[in-house]
């Protein structure tokens, strides 16, 4: 396994929050920060409030950009932390579906009792699947990789 693959897996296993960028119908940007889980296919899932500006943007535009920082590299170079940035397709998850239940189980395993308020207040929160289709993994200022593939399995050195 390459160093890039090791860092990618480490980020997915240890980070608990992601930054998400969306745009509204007028092209105005909006940023948010939320807990997430990842399934075996490397699809990301977030619970998001129906009243959030990000929710309307996600549902209307069907694409988002996410960034996940490696929490273990927080004390390294502040100008080049290890991070994963991905372009994603947005797929709302139907409440009560098999995917919804299995994803709630992932949230419960990762966040324990903290997720119960979200799952009990189902009417005000949507579960969104973020399916990455390309991205970039930054290990430091000189080790940068393009990522693609159905399970983020294609990792190639970035060439400007």
Helix-strand layout with pairing:
Blueprint: H1 3-14, E1 17-23, E2 29-35, E3 37-38, E4 44-49, H2 53-61, E5 63-69, E6 83-93, H3 98-111, H4 116-120, E7 125-138, E8 144-148, E9 154-157
Give a description of the structure.
This protein has 160 residues and is of the alpha+beta class. The protein has a single domain (3-157), classed as Pnp Oxidase, Chain A (Roll). Helix content is 25%, strand content 39%. The protein is built from 4 helices and 9 strands; from the N terminus they run H-E-E-E-E-H-E-E-H-H-E-E-E. It has helices spanning 3-14, 53-61, 98-111, 116-120; strands at residues 17-23, 29-35, 37-38, 44-49, 63-69, 83-93, 125-138, 144-148, 154-157. Strands 1, 2, 3, 4, 5, 6, 7, 8 and 9 form a 9-stranded antiparallel sheet that branches. Strand 8 and strand 9 form a beta hairpin. The two termini are 25 Å apart.
Quick tags:
160 residues, alpha+beta, Pnp Oxidase, Chain A, 39% strand
What integer value in Å does the Rg equal?
16 Å
Beta strands, count: 9
SS-derived structural category = alpha+beta
Query: What is the CATH superfamily?
Result: Electron Transport, Fmn-binding Protein, Chain A
What portion of the residues fall into strands of 2 or more residues? 35-45%
Shape: globular
**Oligomeric composition of the shown chains:** single chain
Q: Point out poorly predicted stretches.
A: none
- Return the CATH architecture: Roll
Total count of domains: 1
């Amino acid at each position: 396994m390459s160093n890039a693959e090791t860092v990618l897996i480490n980020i997915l296993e240890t980070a608990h929050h992601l930054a998400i960028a969306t745009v509204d119908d007028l092209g105005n940007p909006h940023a948010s920060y939320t807990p997430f889980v990842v399934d075996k296919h490397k699809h990301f899932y977030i619970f998001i409030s129906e009243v959030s500006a990000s929710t309307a943007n996600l549902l209307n535009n069907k694409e988002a950009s996410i960034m996940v920082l490696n929490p273990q590299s927080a004390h390294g170079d502040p100008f080049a932390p290890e991070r994963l940035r991905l372009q994603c397709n947005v797929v709302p998850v139907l409440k009560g579906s098999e995917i919804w239940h299995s994803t709630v189980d992932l949230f419960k395993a990762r966040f324990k009792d903290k997720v119960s308020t979200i799952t009990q207040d189902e009417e005000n929160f949507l579960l969104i699947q973020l399916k990455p289709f390309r991205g970039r993994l930054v290990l430091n200022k000189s080790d940068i990789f393009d990522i693609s593939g159905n399970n983020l399995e294609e990792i190639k050195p970035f060439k400007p």
